[in-house]
């Protein structure tokens, strides 16, 4: 990885979604691993408008663009907007309702 990049200009690679995980609309996902730091992966992830479900990895992320609601099986939900920092735990089951295309910078345990 270069020493300095503009996270808004990095092109992401398509990340296929499982058909059964798409609940509303026709969202598309993309990902670009940027590197590792002490054995922990970091990169960019995006999701266009729609609703999908997921099983989470152990990660933290900060929202760079977009707006969404993440709902957890526990009934808890969080609102995502630029600048919001989130901690997810491995195995959590979530539902992502994306209102405007979402882009996040993530750090995930390997």
Short description:
This protein is an all-beta fold.
Please give a structural write-up.
The chain has 110 residues and is mainly beta. Helix content is 0%, strand content 61%. Strands 1, 2, 3, 4, 5, 6, 7, 8 and 9 form a 9-stranded antiparallel sheet that branches. A hairpin with a 2-residue loop joins strand 3 and strand 4. The radius of gyration is 13 Å and the shape is globular.
The averaged pLDDT comes out at 95
Order of helices and strands: EEEEEEEEE
Rg from Cα: 13 Å
Number of strands: 9
Low-confidence parts:
none
Largest sheet: 9 strands, antiparallel
Structural class: mainly beta
CA distance, first residue to last residue: 18 Å
Oligomeric state of the chains? single chain
Number of helices: 0
Helix content: under 10%
| Form type | globular
Beta-strand percentage range? over 45%
Q: What is the topological layout?
A:
Layout lengths: L12 E3 L6 E3 L4 E9 L2 E8 L2 E6 L3 E14 L4 E4 L4 E4 L4 E16 L2
Highlighted features:
single chain; 110 residues; mainly beta; 9 strands; 0% helix; 61% strand
């Amino acid at each position: 990885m270069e020493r300095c990049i503009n996270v808004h200009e990095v092109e992401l690679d398509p990340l296929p979604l499982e058909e059964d995980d798409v609940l509303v609309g026709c969202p598309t996902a993309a990902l670009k691993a940027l590197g590792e730091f002490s054995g922990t992966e970091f990169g960019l992830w995006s999701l266009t408008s729609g609703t999908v479900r997921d099983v989470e990895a152990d990660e933290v992320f900060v929202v760079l663009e977009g707006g969404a609601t993440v709902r957890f099986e526990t009934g808890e939900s969080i609102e995502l907007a630029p600048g919001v920092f989130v901690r997810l735990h491995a195995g959590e089951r979530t539902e992502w309702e994306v209102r405007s295309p979402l882009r996040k910078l993530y750090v995930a345990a390997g």
